[in-house]
Amino acid sequence: MSTAALDARRPVAAPARPLTPRRPRGTATGRFLTVLAWAAGLLFFAPVAWMVLTSFKQESQAASNPPTFFFTPTLEQYASIIGSSGAGSYLLNSVLATGISTLLVLVLAVPAAYAVSIRPIKRTQDVLFFFISTKMLPVVAVIMPIYVIAGQIRMLDNILTLIVLYTAMNLPIAVWMMRSFFLEVPGEVLEAASIDGASLLRTMRTVLLPMVAPGIAATALICVIFAWNEFFFALNLTAANAATVPIFLMSTMTSEGLFLARLSAASVLASLPVVLAGWIAQKQLVRGLSMGAVK
Amino acid sequence: MTTPETSAPHAATPPSADGPRRGRTSPRPDAAARADGWRRRLPLMPAFLFVVICTQIPFLLTIWYSLRSRNLLRPEGETFVGLRNYLDLAVDSTFRTAALNSILLTLGCVAVSLVLGLGLALLLDREFLGRGFIRTLLITPFLIMPVAGAMLWSISMFDPTYGLVNWLIGTVGISPVDWTSSFPMLSIIIALVWQWTPFMMLLLLAGLQSQTPDVLEAASMDGAGAWTTFVHITLPHLRFYLELSVLLGAIYVVNTFDQIYLMTAGGPGTASANLPFYIYQRAFLGFDIGQSAAMGVVTVIATIIIATFALRLIFTSINSKEQS
Fold this sequence. Notes:
The structure holds 2 protein chains of 2 kinds.
Chain A: H1 3-9, H2 28-55, H3 59-62, H4 76-83, H5 87-115, H6 124-136, H7 140-152, H8 159-182, H9 187-195, H10 200-229, H11 232-237, H12 245-254, H13 260-280, H14 282-289
Chain B: H1 3-12, H2 29-41, H3 45-66, E1 68-71, E2 74-80, H4 84-90, H5 93-124, H6 131-143, H7 146-157, H8 164-171, H9 179-182, H10 184-209, H11 213-221, H12 226-254, H13 258-263, H14 275-285, H15 289-323
Antiparallel strand pairs in B: 1-2
Helix pairs in contact in B: 3-15, 4-15, 5-10, 5-12, 5-14, 6-10, 7-10, 10-12, 11-12, 12-15, 14-15
């Protein structure tokens, strides 16, 4: 990038938020960077596009060499997935495990985050450290005892087991996230409420929760993503009754031989809820993935 | 998104126990202070106990299992064997391979996706036609169900006969490659990098956009070139975001299981097994609880040692950021 380009940009660089002034649009460099960004975006998306394309093919077109690019699309694969026996029960299990665990996480994490932000307890730092450290505990290190205990209390292949584990899995992230949202509530608001003589419960409901509602939504989004996509616990702790969508996806490959078009249609359907949610809530996604550390 | 609204009233309930008596003074100040301390701690307790019960107790049991010889196929032969499971590990060459693969996989994936993510974040940190659209395309690999992503790569992309990758390299005259058998680790790393680059990009893009434009403006007025500005202003500003990306990325990638299970099943042989996969194999296919528990304990200790250093780093970063 030349200095001349920078100089040309300077006189007009006065809008409210000049987006990276060192890269002016309209120059050759600028055009090149735009093309590069488009190329990178399309390259990363290409496998997904291919998966979607394959899902509209006949099986013979899906596994062809050279690959088939032009064909008459068919909804046959989608119809076969939606109509397949048992697909509904996998879906129901996923919805239950994801939905209930996310609700449970919020019910537990919001008060906990309050205790480490608004009216902080002593040793707040240690508590936060403890929560994050459990995320570093490799899951495989605890799967055996969980399997044995679940077996002893007859909870194997039970959706409740997944709900409890998904709650424990997402709770540390949720506490960190909600804390970062609580910390943004201005102190004056809380003081004003307490001078008014509002009880804590009322302050919480009428002042605090509405202010952190976007935070609750962002936290829920992250919990939903991780719970919906979870595979390891589902693989080891469920069988016919409590198996979730990822297990269904895997079974379309292994039990019936390889039907690539059908597998692709199943993959698209299985990924769709989280992909759509993530697309819609891109801003919340960043904050959630960084556990609230990045605003 | 209806979940948060419906959950809000429930979420408000637990702290209520703490509520009504605020501000009333008790006759004895130290008792009052202690009571206040407990009132403050009360809202934390349900979440804290839940996590302790679900993570710490199973881990203590893992330590207990690791000191015993126990095989689910032979329930009668359970004995206390002390550290023998750990000594067996020392001579288990597959365990060493798996440990090495874990390190390779984590370092490789985190390093490559960090660099790619930084490049993409820089590309997206400027206005251009279709910026929002491209960002949406770029985050998609992270949102795709990992099981779907793993099968997409191992079959649609890497299949030796009809995979897209072999067709692509065929157009420039390279003969077909059996990716997941010949280059199992590389194949897995490619699939992982594809999944984790968007994650890094999102975090680093947020970092870039939190830069104050004035500073960059001032630098360019002082005649600093793009590279000088990047090295001396942008990179130091990004330090916190880079550290965070590495730490969080490593936490998730070190636990990689889905891709290995579905793409190579740890093979050929044990060439691409990492620790989570090898422990899983020993536990659920070999039913060797004592041995797999010992491996789990060793993995946790190693993780704790590495993570403690990383966490201290991040905590200092976050604190200095919150105070500024």
